[in-house]
Design a protein that fits this description.
With 293 residues, the protein is an alpha/beta fold. It is built from 13 helices and nine strands. The protein has an eight-stranded mixed beta barrel with strand order 1-2-4-5-6-7-8-9. Helix 3 runs parallel beside helix 5. The chain starts with a helix and ends with a helix. About 3% of the residues have low confidence. Bound molecules: ligand C2E and magnesium ion (MG) (2 copies). The site of one magnesium ion (MG) has 4 residues, from strand 6.
């Protein structure tokens, strides 16, 4: 894994998030992949626990944040605004340097803090409540928002949850996948959405795969969703294509505009120069005539 990090074998895929009611684009979640030269593409469920145990999660997490911020800032500059969600491990949040890593990633990319959302799981709240609350409060002060990922699968109490500076709940995929068949899962989803509304938290559903699931979520007033119904997590080029073309056209368009402005400025300058020269010639001729006379 250390070699993978050195050799640039890790890369990010992006999954879009949209407003449930309107279908309007809202944001994107960055998800990590490892392209191992021998085994091919490996998912995070396999390597994140190893990275956490070995302490490599710090370097990997910092890299994820920096790359994702840079990519989304570039999309912003190309006229594609979106919020970025990045997953965090418990260990990352515990580390003292984490806040400066976030600050650096925002400063070097130019992404506004308000456009960054960090996803934590309920385990963060349960295992390290005080440290987690302090770090999350500082992140909130910076303008970064916090989402509780896989919500409903952990055992955090409502009082613990209420202490946290969170902005969003993400309903776990396991509830969403059974929402049309299993009545208790449907009730859990409805309860989470109602709770979010009462606590003034945005609610997003993950793992939405069918129109029927989306319709139920929309009926209960779920704010946002993501899932295979909309799109699978995609590498940068595919994501840009899905948005209606690569990021190049806006840049090319801007370049063409600049060329046109330069050409126009040259024409105006030429016109002024020729007028001045013409004026000088008339003056010279007039002076010569006056002398001759
Ligand atoms: P997560 O953050 O809860 O991400 C959702 C997972 O569900 C992703 O799996 C995504 O590919 C998958 N998914 C999305 N839509 C659907 C759908 O409609 N149906 C199904 N069946 N699956 C869907 P992935 O990419 O394998 O990530 C697994 C977990 O690994 C993530 O769960 C997250 O906890 C962790 N992870 C991913 N990237 C990072 C990272 O950069 N840092 C850390 N610390 N953890 C990461
Ligand atoms: Mg997530
Ligand atoms: Mg999740």
């Amino acid at each position: 894994m250390r070699r993978g990090l050195m050799d640039d074998e890790f890369f990010l895929v992006y999954q879009p998030q949209v407003e449930t009611r309107t279908g309007r684009a809202f944001g994107v979640e960055a998800l990590l992949r490892w392209r191992d030269p021998e085994r091919g593409i490996i998912g995070p469920a396999e390597f994140i626990p190893i990275a956490e145990e070995s302490g490599m999660i710090q370097a990997l997490g910092a890299r994820v944040l920096r790359d994702a911020c840079r990519q989304v800032a570039q999309w912003h500059r190309c006229g594609m605004p979106m919020r970025l969600s990045v997953n965090l491990s418990v260990q990352q949040l515990q580390h003292d340097s984490w806040l400066s890593i976030v600050e650096d990633a925002l400063a070097s990319s130019g992404l506004a803090a308000g456009e960054l959302d960090l996803e934590i799981t309920e385990s963060v709240i349960i295992t390290h409540p005080d440290k987690a609350v302090a770090t999350l409060a500082k992140l909130k002060e910076m303008g970064v928002s916090i989402t509780v990922d896989d919500f409903g699968t952990g055992y955090s109490s409502l009082s613990q949850l209420n202490k946290l500076p969170i902005a969003q709940l993400k309903i776990d995929r396991s509830f969403v996948s059974q929402i049309t068949q299993n009545r208790s899962d449907a009730v859990i989803v409805q309860t989470i959405i109602g709770m979010g509304r009462n606590l003034d938290l945005e609610v997003i559903a993950e793992g939405v795969e069918t129109e029927a699931q989306k319709a139920i979520l929309a009926g209960h007033g779920c704010d946002l969703y993501q899932g295979y119904l909309l799109a699978r997590p995609m590498p940068v080029a595919d994501f840009e294509r899905s948005l209606g073309g690569p990021a190049a056209p806006p840049q090319a368009w801007r370049f063409a505009m600049r060329v046109m402005i330069c050409a126009l400025a040259l024409c105006v300058a030429g016109l002024i120069a020729s007028t001045v020269l013409h004026g000088c010639a008339i003056c010279a001729r007039w002076a010569a005539t006056a002398q001759g006379g």
